[in-house]
Design goal:
There is one protein chain. By secondary structure, the protein is mainly alpha-helical. 71% of the residues lie in helices and 0% in strands. The protein contains 3 helices and no strands. It has helices spanning 2-5, 16-37, 46-74. The protein starts with a helix and ends with a helix.
Length: 77
C-alpha cells in the first residue's frame, strides 16, 4: 500500500498539502490497522492504542521529511 500510494505525489496539479493529506488518509485506513492486528504491539488498554498511533505518526513524519528533502530538494537541483 505504501508504494501504491506514493503515486499520489506524482499528481502535479495538487498542492503538496493536498498530496500529503490524501496520502495520510490512505495510510491511516490501510497501514494503521495492519499495525494493530500485526501482534507486534501489546494492545491491552486505550493508552496502548495511543502509543501505536504515536509511533505511526512519528515514523510517518520522519519518512515524509526524509522524502521531502531527498525527492523535493536534493534531486530537483
Amino acid at each position: 500500500m505504501v508504494a501504491a500510494a506514493s503515486v499520489i505525489y506524482d499528481i502535479e496539479k495538487w498542492s503538496l498539502l493536498k498530496q500529503s493529506a490524501i496520502h495520510f488518509i490512505v495510510m491511516i485506513l490501510t497501514i494503521f490497522p495492519c499495525l494493530l492486528i500485526s501482534g507486534w504491539y501489546e494492545l491491552s488498554s486505550f493508552a496502548d492504542y495511543l502509543k501505536v498511533f504515536g509511533i505511526f505518526l512519528l515514523c510517518g513524519c520522519v519518512f515524509w521529511t526524509i522524502g521531502y528533502f531527498v525527492f523535493g530538494k536534493l534531486l530537483n537541483r
